[in-house]
Amino acid sequence: VLGNFVEIGVHHGNYIPAIKTMMLPGSKLYLFDTFTGIPDKDVVLPEEEPFREEFAEIGSGMTADEIKRLGEIPGAVLVQGDIAETLDSGLPDRITFAHVDVDTYAGTILSLMKVHPKMIEGGRISVHDYANPSTPGVRVAIEEFNGEHSESYDHEIRPDDHYVYLRKAQR
What's the angle, vertex CA 125, arms to CA 101 and CA 66, rounded to 5? Predict the structure, then answer.
């Protein structure tokens, strides 16, 4: 598909090959991440604190050279920093596909609310960690977003692989 693709929460970059299989030449891939871990302010639910601590111990797992190589992927636009500060100016005007994997309520709801108005009809959003007991805020954010936008999206919940898939309805 020709269009703009977005990944919010890149971590090791493991999902990039899957996204690249959907992209036609000329498409852009916007990659958003701090590459320094989960910001403390994003942990708003007490149940999220153990995961943040565990994630902080693991770290981003990427060296500066690895991060630099992400920006060298054909069509890639690397946006490094806190998504609360980078999504407004860094997101393209029209989005074909977005993958959200930020592990917290605050990061997930922020990502969905920023991506939503820019999604094209028929565009898709995948959200990771919906059914992961270590990241309960993701489920809360998805349920809140679906409650506010239930007429805008069809959704498929796949708890076996921890994903929720949303497709923006065509009008």
Answer: 40
